[in-house]
């Protein structure tokens, strides 16, 4: 996959490659220097709307790695990739990867990202991972809390 430096953050590229039927989608092009590979996530306790279960970071301790995805129902990139996210996470979870998705949007500005809609979304797409709601608008997941 080659980089397309002419794209700006949020732009998409659907250039076809020499392989017919293959395409590449370039989403947000923002680099993050806040964390490094192996970074430990901050402690959290968040609720999974579909089940009402409370999840903590410690619930994932027995796994060799944890993928934390920050997603929400209204995001156009997430909407486009939902089925692929499910396929990808199913594949790697069978290999031992722990996966969790977190929505930290305010329901006052994005009501479609609220717990009831999250539960519907998780059920409709058969999410194999917990889809947690952070009603603190990103805390403890605000970048100021992320330390190496």
Notes on the protein architecture:
It is built from 2 helices and 5 strands. The protein has helices spanning about 75-95, 115-125, and strands at about 45, 55, 65-70, 100-105, 130-135. The two termini are about 30 Å apart.
Structural class: alpha/beta
Roughly what fraction of the amino acids lie in strands? 5-15%
Count of extended strands: 5
Computed Rg: 16 Å
Q: What summary fits the major beta sheet?
A: 3 strands, parallel
Task: Please tag this protein with its features.
alpha/beta, two-stranded antiparallel ribbon, three-stranded parallel beta sheet, 148 residues, globular
In short:
This protein has 148 residues and is an alpha/beta fold.
Task: Describe the secondary structure blueprint for this structure.
Elements: E1 45-47, E2 54-56, E3 66-70, H1 76-93, E4 98-103, H2 115-124, E5 131-133
Parallel strand pairs: 3-4, 4-5
Antiparallel strand pairs: 1-2
